[in-house]
Amino acid sequence: MAEPSLTIEQSSNSTRITILGELLTRYVGDVQPAFDRISADLPDVQLDLSKLESIDTSGAWLIADMQRRLQHGGATLQITGASPAHAALLDTVTEHLPAELDADAPERGIKPFLISLGEVTVSGWQGFLSALAFFGETLAALVLTLLQPWRLRRAALFSQMESAGLKAVPIVALMGFLIGVVLAFQGAAQLKQFGAEVFVVELIAISVLRELGILLTAIIVAGRSGSAFTASVGSMKVQEEIDAMRTIGLNPIEALVVPRVLALIIMMPILGFIANMAGLFGGALMSWIDLGVTPGMFITRLKETTDVWNLLVGMIKAPFFALMIGVIACWQAMQVRGSAESVGQHTTASVVQSIFMVIAIDAMFSIFFSELGV
Asked: What digits encode the pLDDT tens for the residues 70-109?
């Protein structure tokens, strides 16, 4: 094995470059800097390949790329001494060199900005219409399923309830417990300044039952189950399984979307209730440890100062959160186009959009209940 080397002989009006050895892939990394140093500033270049023992595609690419670079710079390159096999390989590689990308600077000014803004606006409007149409199809399928229960795929429903609900109980309970602990600890630090430690019970109960319990549960479900829905259905879209379902007369909305959305609608209130109870337990435990509020006193204050509506306000939000998470996750899955990268992109978009919509819906409910005086 002879490693390749370059010799350069330069005269007043020409430059002769001779390549010796074997210009193979294993040596490309070592010899490429020498090729890169050959610039168009040199006089007319003659490349002698008579002493080249062997060459493969990578070596031919080095020569072809150098030839194109010199020609673009205004110099000429003449190849001599190449064997017929080497010359044929060089011709093939030269013909199939990829076109160089234009290095022009992007346009600047108000016109390109307006064009970009218009494209984003049109794309966003089309996405909104697509999501709205999908939401309508899903609602229609849900109503049809409620009117004709025998159409429901029970096995798929129970499987999704187990995956999205039962298996989420540990993380939801832990999250609720820690939220209760944090609220009690931070609330105690502030209330101690005013000698109002006993009001930590109301702080924990109202915060957890009305807002934080169900809101954080929805965020966890969006990140956990929503992403799983998008990834699983999106993978089916990539593998053309959804097209196959339509071919044999199955409706993907009824077969894939309805069981998932219905499972979330059923399990979200249950998960929210578990998070609420875990939050109250964590708050009671920290209040006992940090403030000396015994469990009996905590329960008494809870009964005296916390209305059942505080619990119902959170539970009313749960089905709406679940519907939105399920619809967005499945809609994003239906937008997947042809590659695993697309699945990842739409899974990320599903989580982001679901969390945003959950927070927006929670804000609207807060305003609504505030206006009702609840």
From this structure: 777 777 778 888 888 888 888 888 888 776 544 455 667 7
Which helix (H) or strand (E) is 187 found in, with range? helix 169-191
User: What DSSP designation does 293 have?
Assistant: -
pLDDT above 70 coverage of the chain, percent = 95
Taken as a whole, the chain contains a residue count of: 374
Domains of the chain, each with CATH number or no CATH: 5-95 (3.30.750.24), 124-372 (no CATH)
Print burial letters for 305-335: b (CB count within 10 Å at least 16), e (below 16).
ebeeebbebbbbbbebbbbbbbbbbbbbbbb
Q: Are 200 and 316 within 8 A, CB to CB?
A: no
Of 53-67, 125-139, 184-198, 215-229, the range with the lowest mean pLDDT is 184-198
Can you read off the two tokens belonging to residue 285? Answer: 């435990």
Tokens of 253: 């909305």
Residue pair 165/263 in contact by the 8 Å Cβ criterion: yes
- Tell the residue number behind the tokens 């619809």, with chain if given: 327
Euclidean distance between CA atoms 360 and 237, whole angstroms: 29
Nearest CA to 262 out of 186, 154, 182, 179 is that of 154
